[in-house]
Design goal:
Elements lengths: L7 E5 L6 H12 L2 E4 L1 H14 L6 H10 L2 E5 L5 E5 L2 E2 L7 H11 L2 H15 L4 E5 L2 H5 L5 E6 L2 H14 L6 H17 L12 E4 L5 H11 L4
Helix pairs in contact: 1-9, 2-4, 3-5, 4-8, 7-8
Bound molecules: 2'-deoxycytidine-5'-monophosphate.
């Protein structure tokens, strides 16, 4: 498929809706870059936990977000690589501790300000598929295509549970479902850029769809820019 040089595609949605898997595959099909913005919030959260900073101390957390040198790239195999102050922290970012804390950290306005600036800088250089919670509403409001991915709580918890189990975690399905609902609540109720579809977003419910079906649905919506 011929893809315009500068196309911007925003994919937002709640935890476990499939944003990362779908976004990454879509970017591959279109031959454009991919950025999972959740990783940027996870990197700040990891740094706070490593430094023993209380995630509810908005001032201290904001200073961490401002002070770290964060870069997000792609490895030869197409996987994201997150470097903080010269250290590759990618493997650490999906831990249960970070899952538990990241929504509180990402609700802090100063953190969002720094991350949004960094995300826009990444998007400015070439065509991109960007996934997150506020991409269509805040980060790239002029994106050429905005998708809001959804799925039922049960489907999302099942996906996340399978992902964690594959990593060797012993966490139960019920604990995953509880954690997911609690993160949904924080992400949707926070004051600064809460999770919600942009007015011009296309809603895609992934409940009974395979990855390829979701990707094909989105590919058909990509406009000629
Ligand atoms: O997509 P994820 O689970 O990796 O995201 C981690 C957290 O970061 C999530 O709880 C909400 C937050 N987030 C955000 O507020 N805005 C984004 N653009 C991406 C993620």
């Amino acid at each position: 498929m011929k893809t315009p040089n500068r196309i911007q595609i925003a994919i937002d949605g709640p935890v476990g809706a499939g944003k990362t898997t779908v976004g990454r595959r879509l970017a591959q099909v279109l031959g454009v870059r991919f950025l999972d913005t959740g990783l940027t919030y996870r990197a700040v959260t990891r740094e706070c936990l490593a430094r023993g900073i209380d995630p509810s101390d908005a001032g201290a957390v904001g200073r961490v977000a401002l002070s770290i040198k964060l870069s997000v790239g792609i490895s030869d195999t197409g996987d994201p690589v997150v470097i903080v102050d010269g250290k590759d922290v990618t493997e650490e970012l999906r831990s249960v501790d970070i899952d538990r804390t990241v929504s509180a950290v990402s609700a802090i306005p100063a953190v969002r300000q720094h991350m949004v600036r960094a995300q826009r800088a990444i998007a400015s250089s070439s065509a991109i598929v960007m996934v997150g919670r506020d991409i269509g509403t805040v980060v790239l409001p002029g994106a050429h295509l905005k998708i809001f991915l959804t799925a039922s709580d049960a489907t999302r918890a099942r996906r996340r549970h399978a992902e964690l189990s594959a990593q060797g975690s012993k966490v139960t399905y019920d604990a995953v479902l509880d954690a997911l609902r609690s993160r949904d609540r924080i992400d949707s109720e926070r004051e600064t850029s809460p999770l919600r579809p942009a007015r011009d977003a296309r809603i895609v419910d992934t409940d009974n769809m395979s990855l390829e079906e979701v990707v094909n649905t989105i590919v058909r919506l990509v406009p000629a820019v």
